[in-house]
Specification:
The protein is of the alpha+beta class and about 500 residues long. Helices cover about 35% and strands about 20% of the residues. The strands form three sheets. The chain has a five-stranded antiparallel beta sheet, sandwiched between helices. It is extended. The model has no long low-confidence stretch (mean pLDDT about 80). This is MULE transposase domain-containing protein.
Length: about 500
Amino acid sequence: MDSSNLVKPCSGCLKTYSLNFFDGKKTCNACRLSNKNRQVTSCTNRKRQIEEEEHEKIKTNYHICIEDLPEIIVENIIKYKENTHPDSSDTFEVSCFIDITEFQDESKVIADNIAEVISETDEYNWIYNTKTENKKGVTYYYLCSQNNELSKKPRKNPDITKQRDRESMDRYNCKGRIKILIDETEHIAYIVIKHHILHNLPPDVSVPETIKQFIKDNVDLFPQIIYSQLVTSGMDINIRQKQIHYWWPVYMIKQYKQHENSFILAQDWLNEFNYSTLFIMDSSVHAIAFLTGFEKLLKEQNIIISECDNTNDQKYELYALIVEVNGTGFPLAYLFLEINGESDKDFAQISAAQMTWPEIKIQLCKWHIQRAVETKLKDYRAITRTNYDEYQANRKFTFIDKQFIPIVSANKKTKIRFCPEEYRPFIWNLMNQHLHLHPLIPNSTGQFLDANQIYEHAVQKMYSYCKENSLVWVWSYMWNEWYREGHWEL
């Protein structure tokens, strides 16, 4: 029988539809979709309400110091064990508010410190799991190490010499979880500790002090070598290689890291070794510039500015003024600079250097020039504006056509082919030739050209190639960034 001819009323909207609109349910497809959307909205609103309630609690509740946290946890554990039957399904739960005004670290570090205090008190191992962010702050979640959710299928190491029969960890459906909301605006941490079962504590497989001392004494060795030597000496088989890898950088870092703040650490180190600082900037952008002492010994005039990208994990970079003598680089001065989005590394900085040292000649690194040019030639993004001045270009060189100009599309979504792939190698090769032109080097015909002749020759070559191949956007970029006065000299 054709079901499309059968109808029935919807128990939700009470309207009558064909059976095809029900999928075997009592309500029609439209009602079920509407109900689902209401449930999602209700769930979202409830979640937002809970977050706002927690935020209000933070503002109004009594706040403790982190030193008082262990006492509160111990008191609640004792009460729970005294008042709860072993077969009871009652959940162990502790919540409180901690004043974190004195903490100067990032929110994750604060949360880790709080979780460590909890672990030292209740003697369970808590493992960081995930985090969520909203306008109230950042919430970090830690799971009990014996939670079933963290269990993994055991795997044998394919290398027989590395196979070790360790004791398996007891697992429980404890749903143990720590929730730590860090509100840096109110300087408060809201903590919730939950355990459906206060089960047996995990076995103590912490690294003994004797092994820590061995790692400390042999910190110049690689961790895997240290681990191999410990295994040979009869170390407890339940101690894992990861634990050795954990403690090795701890002792390695202690050799040179005396403070968590890189900026303060750099200042202390400079003071300790009596370095002469040019300036210390402690504002929105942190920076320290200091001399090495070589400038008193060297008379070399060629200075190189070099940079170490990602000097550390705190967004600091190290710049150096270096002179080259007989192929060897000697550092004259260093700049330890914070890269936080409020400083740049473009031509504005080059202009600043030229204003500071008006007699110097600045020359950019060829590798960085090539990377910048090749990256730009591959650009497919829509161009919304151009600052190419065809009149200025024509005044400088009359062979530049004032009608050869880029046109910005009114449709911002329109994408252009900035430079088709087949032209890119030649453009860079041509520019690379121009980088090597010099009045002391003869050209292909044996002629020696002066600086102005070289400049005009290079501009004409690049312009002609772009004009012949209708590469108007490439020409505007080349002129603005590399070939116009003020940039060509670099």
